[in-house]
Amino acid sequence: MKRMVLMLILASIGFIYAQEEYYDDYNNTHSSDTTADEIITTEPMAVADIIGTATNDTPDNTPEQDMTASAEASISEFYKKLNIPIWYRWREFGVSATIPYFMSRDVPMSDLSASGIGDISIGFSYGKFLAEQNTYLDFNVTAKLPTGDDKADAGDGVTVSLTTETLDITGAISAYYFMDDFTYKGNIIYTMNGKYTDDWDIEHDRGDNFLFVVGADYRWQYNLTFGLNANYGMHANSENDGVEGMDKTIFMDLKPVVKYPINLFEFVAGAKIPLYTDTPDDSYNEGNRNMVFFFRTNYQLF
Fold it and tell me: What's the CA gap between 205 and 261, in Å, rounded?
């Protein structure tokens, strides 16, 4: 009898832990906008050019055009992902494309995982350097396409989605102010998430995302740069067939980064540290999220 009671207690603890694991992954998804993260972590190339000439008398002497390719790996408890962003700028105009590849996307409450290409993003931007104000302004519109596999094989007959299954449009306004060895920055990002219909003909509206970011970079000796961003965001309530769900998420994060350029390369390492998560009242959903580490290499093609 005692053994049976002990087994029931252990099973209950395991079930509660598994539920918390599920909701941790759920909260991570609702507080993370892939396109917004790409815009924040991959700054316009003109910013680096301006910083590189900031000690000259003509800080607005940036190249007429340039192109950069990057590789960024991000690691969290439930996934390992590789992003390949490509940026091209001609004068004030820029275009970008980002191809994400999940090296592993874990299935919560199991030891299973899947891999494959996620949702590709295509962006257009306009940036202008205001020499008298020593400020660079950037306006960006990005479309995230539902190119990922919605039923990636995780083994044992289990599938996992690598896509949101929606066409999402993100608009962003970014400002960078240069003062000596400091670069102050601010971003306002809004994502209009699309709708999709599942296998049971139920229409899902995932709810929109809002993100406000402030931060600063300090260029130390040897061009080693330390940066810190503070993020405040909100994921609005979703709807299923017009019925509003109770899954609004409000969150705050810190994102410390370290950057170091070598010739045409730039190496970036950082983390997204959850500070606060406000989620609907649920016995298992306690607002927990996981830290994300990322490493990026930028290479200026020309």
Answer: 42
Nearest Cα residue to 166 out of 117, 204, 115, 201: 204
Q: Look at residue 16 in the predicted model and tell me its pLDDT.
A: 38
Phi, psi (deg, nearest 5) at residue 233? -140, 165
Return the pLDDT at 2. Answer: 45
Q: How many domains does the chain have?
A: 1
71-107: per-residue pLDDT in tens?
889 888 888 899 888 888 888 899 999 999 988 888 7
What was the pLDDT predicted at 52? 62
Residue 85: count of CB within 10 angstroms of its CB: 21
215-228 pLDDT, tens digit per residue, is 999 988 777 899 99
Give how far Cα 237 sits from Cα of 141, 191, 245, 279, 280, Å: 23, 13, 6, 11, 10
Angle of CA points 252, 257, 262, to nearest 5°: 160
- Pick the more confident residue, 50 or 241: 50
Q: Supply the CATH number for residue 56's domain.
A: 2.40.160.40
The pLDDT of residue 287 is 65
Exposed, middle or buried, 8 (CB in 10 Å: 0-12/13-18/19+)?
exposed
Tell me if residue 32 falls in helix, strand or coil. coil
- Whole-angstrom distance, CA of residue 45 vs CA of residue 158: 42
Domain that holds residue 207: 2-300
| Region of 169 on the Ramachandran plot (φ > 0 left; ψ -120 to 50 alpha; else beta) | beta
